[in-house]
Amino acid sequence: MFAGIDEVDWASMEHAYGPADDVPALLAGLASADAAERERALDGMYGAVHHQGDVYACTLACIPFLFELVADPAVAERGAIVELLTSIGGIELAEDDEDELDEDEIEGAANYAMAAAAVCAGAEVFVGLLADDDRGVRLAAPLALATLHTEPARVLALLRGRLPVEPDEEVRLALVEAAGRLALRHVPVADTAAHWLSRLAMQEYAPGLRLAALAQLARCAPGALPVDIVPRVADLLRDLRAAHPPAGPGTRAAAEAAAREGVQSPTLIGQLRALHAAEAAGPGTPWATDLLRTLHGALGDRVEDRVALLTDQLCSPDEGQRLDAVRMSGGLIRVWRGPYDELVRLVGEQLAEPDPRLRDAAAHLLADVRVLAGPAADALAARVAVIPGTWIRQWENGQPSLDPAVLALAGTGDVRALPVLAAVLEGPVVPHDLGHAVAALGTAASPLAGALRHRLYGVARDPSARGGAMPLMHALASLRADEATPEVLRVLRGGTEAEAPRVRQSALRTLGAFGPGARGAVGELEALMRRSEGREAVDAADALYSVSGDVDAVLPVLIEALTAEEPPSVRAASGLAGRLGARAAATAPRLRALLGHDDLRVRVDAALALCEVSGRSAETWPVLLAAWTQNPYVRVRVADTLARTGAAAAGSGAAHALRAELSSVRRHNARDGGFGTSDIAADAHLLALCRQALRDPGGRG
Fold first, then answer.
1. Residue 594: what pLDDT?
2. What is the pLDDT of residue 253?
3. CA distances from 37 to 2, 25, 34, 44, 134 (A)
């Protein structure tokens, strides 16, 4: 084995972590009889030689030797090597991506192309692996063929021929998934594959296979899905539960914990395998989760169908299926607009479950969707009432935070969060998200103002605790609690440690939020404005104007900042000019000049300010319309200006953009994949502003 490996000049190549002279040892490790050594070698291949999907010269040099390993039945765990080859050879660059590559990326693209050619040239070996004795090999071979073989019609025929004789249920699902992959990649076989998948979904096959066929149909031929897709999938899930009954509350979690304890590995591959083993250790069908995720992803903007499916899952007796439904509900709600009251209520019910993973997942989702969590308010209040010792979570790395159930309850505006926040203010630490919780309660949180002020006084006297001042000032600003002006000024006068600029900026915003009630701060704000420069000078001017209303005092700072080179200073100055409106008419020429700035954010801020300063929107709308398309995150501010100024009538482009937003099912700030938190409140606010700007009370809610 590995004939000629010593003739390769490995030392002249590099991988993600330096010279590639260790690659021969990694290849040898893949062939080892020792499971731990194989795991370390596979971890090294993914971690260095094929790091995050990259293809290096050493990756290309490995391909012939990886094929040797795959072809040798004496090598254990060849399925993992088949998956590695599939990953190396299966990367495709879209044509529009290729047009935007720099020199290094062009070299990388060439490596991808050579890797694809090399692996595809050897893909015939995967044909013989469809009937291999090793189940892991049979699991990996179908997708390898669908991804890499150059004869899709032949591959589809092989998959169809293998299905009736394949004894393993999960391998049969892999055959179906491969057919869906073929249909997506190769138009000539798409109709044939879709027809076969339709038959599998309709005929009396096992429920898992039928669910897999429906999931792949949704991906490659959504028009072929049956009209009764929701009840059909619900029936299949019930059939799956009957065939693989859940073992009772907490059992799945206990099985997973036992599986994790039994797998001790320092490698990333080992940890991933432990997680997979943990899933497999629990009752039910772990692969059903993947099928449902595929189905949900393929259904895309069919929100009502997806809500109905998730509602059924959340009523399942299988706690694992409910956990998966909570996680998938997050991906749906963060990305798509729709009616979610019943879904959110069912998520709230999971807060009373014994499984801590299920409770935590539900609480985190409700904290993410705060503004939509109202239907779960009673469940949140009940949960918060039974966890008084854990209202604050102290992370090993990072700032302390409120328990997500507390944050979610406050996010609904429910006054039952008030006693909890009051108790938190008496505790030893200030959670970083306290300000968000208080702000969400609005004026209902006014009784907390005294405690917030007292706590800020203590923090302001302790330089080591100054970071805790920011959430306290955020909370006080939201309450317009101007009686706390002395404490905020004490923070503003603080030391010069690394965090001080951020703390001072927060203090200035807080004083600005207090407005005329903070007149006692005028002298210090004037002094700070005079001795500062750049962004801090503008922030001080902004606060001074909010407190005193003195345009003449701040206008020189504003004009100077608009000629600065630093975008943060220019943007802050534009914002202040917009607040001054016609009283900042002297800034109009500079704002017009900024409409051609290289930075899109600077252009937008200048255009919005100019619209306020000049009272004319015709000259700014081309910039704003372009930015509306290029950067969705500017839409709320643009729509706000249009709504307040009535500038939507400035051109058909404005009205068209507003109507298109109202007709869209996708949230304007949704992140691809549904990961992370899109600001759902901002999205709802945008829709309200669009309707106001058009003077149209209709539209999507």
1. 95
2. 52
3. 18, 10, 5, 11, 20
